Amino acid sequence: MIEKIKIWINSDKRPFAQGFSFSKMYIIFIIGSFIGAMHESIWGVIKRLYWYKKFVWTRHQGVIYGPFNPLYGAGIVLIIMLLGKKKRTPFKTFYLGAILGGIFEYIISFLMELVLGAKSWDYSSYFLNINGRTTIPYMLFWGLGIMLLIHFVYPILSKWIESIPKKIGDILVIFLVIFMTFNMIISWTALGRQVLRHKGYEPFTIIGEFYDKVYTDEFLKKIYRNMSFVK
């Protein structure tokens, strides 16, 4: 049985996910989403250790199911598509990354407040902040991270993804697309229903009633710990 599976896997010798293909970028999107959620959780641990001298692990994710933050994944894919196709010096990648990272963070913050009437971060009290949506020091951090991503991490990650057997890779991508699409739709419509609850709108469909019972404010607060509603 195992031998037959091996034969089936190796029967298609075509390369998988070459160049900047959809399959490669989607796998990177998933990996980036996972790393983003882990980054938020680890950073939360560090801050609690510094301020309260306590180790507390909390989830910080952008979707309901699984440790994923699609904003990070989308940002990483966007950066790779914009900066990964042309050779540049690490310094040039650094300052372009700082600018793009700051713009991305600013736009996401603005759209969240505009569409959902909520915010997940507020840097108003931080040094050299820009309208509380990003800061110059954070932009420099973005630049360093993007420089490392483009010049060191992405080449290794790209080769690893291309080494996946094509039949396994194709099945994996289909599964990931279905799972994350469902996950994002459920998560963000649950947030939309939460916004309507805060505005006093009663559910007018069975779906709204289901969301009010399952995805309550208390439940969503455990997922989106940093989010607060703007008056």
Which structural class best describes the helix and strand composition?
mainly alpha
Helical run tally: 8
Largest sheet: 2 strands, antiparallel
Low-confidence segments, given as residue ranges, are none
Question: How do the helices and strands line up, and which of them pair or pack?
Answer:
Layout lengths: L1 H9 L11 H31 L17 H14 L6 H26 L2 E2 L9 E2 L3 E2 H27 L3 H33 L7 H9 L2 H7 L4 E2 L2
Antiparallel strand pairs: 1-4, 2-3
Helix pairs in contact: 2-3, 2-6, 3-4, 3-5, 4-5
Describe the model.
It is a single chain. Helix 2 crosses helix 3, helix 3 (70-83) crosses helix 4 and helix 4 (90-115) crosses helix 5 (136-162). The longest helix is centred in the C-terminal third of the chain and has 33 residues, at 166-198. The chain is mainly α. It has helices spanning 2-10, 22-52, 70-83, 90-115, 136-162, 166-198, 206-214, 217-223; strands at residues 118-119, 129-130, 134-135, 228-229. The mean pLDDT is 90. The chain has eight helices and four strands; from the N terminus they run H-H-H-H-E-E-E-H-H-H-H-E. A two-stranded antiparallel ribbon has the order 1-4.
